[in-house]
Amino acid sequence: MSQALVEFKTVDHVLQALGVEGMSAADVHGLLIGMLASQSNLTCKLWLEKAIFTGAHLDAESDLFSNIMAKEQLKQLEALFKVSWEQLSAGDFTFALLLPDGNAALTERASLLCAWTQGFLTGLHLSGVNIAKYKEGELATTLKDLAEVAQLDLAIEDSNENEAAYTEIAEYVRMAALFVHSELAGSGQATQMTVH
């Protein structure tokens, strides 16, 4: 059985502490899962360089690693990477989306679900998956559905009906991510990323 994910608030705090602007924990996790779902040789370092610290080369001499506090923050992101990979590849449906808990307002949770989904699709793209080439079949339908979720209307009120709809959509996104991973990895379509 897989470990639990690092908490949403913890990852948000880590991103702020590292000076990552414009990305929430949901964005970062969606990117990670999209890249893991479609790339068989992804490393934590490559994910950090490609998705979070775009264009940076993270090595022992980089400014980021020379800061002791940043090293501790990076350990949290490494834990997120490790647990996410374990959950995604376990095959036991323990995989979870990194989203705020039910104490957050429904509008915030819905917005972050859309951000997670957009991150997932972006992660696929960063890994070299050409989503447009999938025109037929269950994978094409799933990718189209995910693109629609990423664009959902976020002006929703807290209600039992909307809460149930959110829960259903979040579960669909979770299962869709697992399906995309199984299709891309299982059919040999997972990409080998070339590092330049």
UniProtKB/TrEMBL annotation:
It comes from the Bacteria. PANTHER family: UPF0149 PROTEIN YGFB. Belongs to the UPF0149 family. This is YecA family protein. It holds the Pfam family UPF0149. Signal peptide: none annotated. GO terms for cellular component: cytosol.
